[in-house]
């Protein structure tokens, strides 16, 4: 039995704690905040309940496997329901598309809006993406990856490597394969699922829309925070100890490997193994600096952090006609958005894509009212000072005007609103600059060669969005499964 300290109680940390405890290890989770969840937070006020982080679950079987491996099945403890349509899209010319939950219904929906030729082109891209998923879904995303050599060895042939084509971008794929600019915009949208720029992210990421269409989009009744609470409960049932308001100031090690962690108040927590669910940049620069991690720091300097997000939580009176669980309202100039976020002079996006999550769930709002989560992509805190007086409120007013211009005017329905800026994400979750996904996937190395799950010091392991295989609810749970496999049973 090993003594394990998990740094951070985000979904990756909780999943690691549950798996390692189920394997017989003695696990303690040290979390700087007062509760578990990390970016998967919640706000409750006046009968309204908001998820403040992810609002869509893809690949639910990843969590079914996690719960099956650690105790009672997932569907015994939470109600996972399909989102249909997965998303309602509004394009700059006013065209609207409902993307169905069922994969076999997608071609007809696309043909009805964009025409048969466009639908065939999209499906051809998805057929190729299915092949890519076969190449990376299990061989790469669900196994440890130690570098380029591992990637090459897991490709059965040169033809497989050419199919992955890490030098080709998602944007170039759309230009080559999709004649309709609206479909190209739809494809570009999936780069933001990893907080990235479609002009820089590898075309391999076409697997993201394939996964969403093949496996569907899902919601947990009561909000995705319910999934997080169920996982924390599973940890406690397995004997995991939690230390909240316990900020880790450093990781201790000697010639044999890690020996524990030090809390900010000086208290040591001895450990044989340490699992880090914090941003890799914070881990290697602040918690474990020194010669042993210098190579890891150099690698991180070549990687761009992911974008962040500006969020409005809107308590709305009344109901919206033709409600949709998810809406995406595109701007006229999508490239200007990525220039504002990733360019040399970052700024709040003047005319952003607006994402709205409005669950049709009676448990999250008073009868007859709605709880809206509104997100726009944003540059990190630091390059932009999101604490500047008046900036957040002025920008929120701007986003509400943009919503009205795009057909969703709710300004006279707002009972109250709460705002979350990149500065808030940094303060509350410890993510550098408030980066939602840790590292972006801008470039082949960032997309395919994130920091490995086995750290450069013996006994150190990494999970979460900045480690392999990446950010998002399914991937951080995959990273936890990888770590559990590397550690093994007690």
UniProtKB/TrEMBL annotation:
- Give the source's domain of life in one word: Bacteria
Q: Name one GO biological process term.
A: carotenoid biosynthetic process
Alphabetically, the GO molecular function entries are: oxidoreductase activity
Per UniProt, what is one Pfam family of this protein?
Amino_oxidase
Record keywords, A-Z: Carotenoid biosynthesis, Oxidoreductase
Tell me the route in metabolism or biology where this protein functions.
Carotenoid biosynthesis
**Parts of the chain that traverse the membrane:** none
Q: Does the keyword Oxidoreductase apply?
A: yes
Domain Amine oxidase: start-end pairs: 11-484
Coiled-coil intervals in this record? Answer: none
Protein family membership: Belongs to the carotenoid/retinoid oxidoreductase family.
Name this protein carries in UniProt: Phytoene desaturase
Q: Which organism is it from?
A: Actinophytocola oryzae
């Amino acid at each position: 039995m090993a003594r394990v300290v998990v740094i951070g109680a985000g979904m990756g940390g909780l999943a690691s704690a549950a798996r390692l405890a189920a394997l017989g290890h003695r696990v303690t989770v040290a979390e700087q905040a007062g509760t578990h969840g990390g970016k998967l937070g919640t706000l409750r006020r006046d009968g309204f309940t908001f998820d403040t982080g992810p609002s869509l679950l893809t690949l639910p079987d990843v969590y079914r496997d996690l719960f099956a491996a650690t105790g009672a099945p997932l569907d015994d403890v939470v109600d996972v329901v399909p989102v249909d349509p997965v998303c309602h899209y509004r394009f700059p010319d006013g065209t609207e598309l409902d993307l169905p939950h069922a994969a076999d219904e997608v071609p007809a929906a696309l043909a009805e809006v964009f025409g048969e030729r466009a639908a065939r082109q999209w499906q051809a891209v998805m057929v190729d993406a299915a092949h890519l998923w076969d190449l990376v879904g299990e061989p790469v995303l669900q196994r440890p990856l130690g570098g380029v050599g591992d990637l090459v060895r897991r490709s059965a042939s040169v033809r497989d490597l050419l199919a992955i084509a890490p030098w080709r971008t998602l944007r170039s794929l759309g230009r080559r394969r999709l004649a309709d600019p609206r479909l190209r915009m739809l494809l570009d949208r999936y780069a933001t699922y990893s907080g990235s720029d479609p002009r820089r992210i590898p075309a391999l990421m076409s697997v993201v829309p394939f996964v969403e269409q093949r496996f569907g989009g899902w919601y947990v009744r009561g909000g995705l925070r319910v999934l997080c609470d169920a996982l924390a409960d599973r940890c406690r049932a397995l004997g995991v100890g939690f230390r909240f308001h316990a900020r880790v100031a450093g990781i201790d090690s000697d010639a044999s490997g890690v020996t524990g962690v030090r809390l900010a108040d000086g208290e040591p927590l001895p450990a044989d193994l340490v699992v880090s669910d914090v941003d890799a940049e914070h881990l290697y620069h602040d918690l474990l600096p020194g010669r042993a991690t210098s190579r890891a720091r150099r690698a991180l300097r070549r990687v761009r952090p992911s974008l962040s997000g500006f969020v409005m939580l809107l308590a709305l009176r009344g109901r919206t006609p033709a409600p949709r669980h998810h809406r995406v309202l595109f701007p006229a100039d999508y490239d200007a958005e990525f220039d504002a976020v990733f360019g040399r002079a970052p700024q709040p996006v003047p005319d952003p894509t607006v994402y709205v999550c409005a669950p049709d769930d009676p448990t999250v709002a008073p009868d007859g009212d709605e709880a809206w989560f509104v997100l726009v992509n944003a540059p990190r805190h630091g390059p932009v000072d999101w604490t500047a007086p008046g900036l957040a409120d002025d920008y929120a007013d701007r986003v509400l005007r943009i919503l009205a211009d795009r057909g969703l005017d709710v300004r006279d329905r707002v009972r109250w609103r709460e705002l979350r800026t990149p500065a808030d994400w940094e303060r509350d979750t410890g993510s550098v600059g408030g980066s939602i996904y840790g590292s972006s996937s801008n470039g082949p190395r960032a997309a395919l060669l994130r920091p490995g799950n086995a750290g450069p010091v013996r006994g150190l392991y990494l999970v979460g969005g900045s480690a392999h295989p990446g950010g998002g609810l399914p991937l951080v749970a995959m990273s936890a499964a990888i770590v559990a496999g590397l550690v093994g049973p007690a």
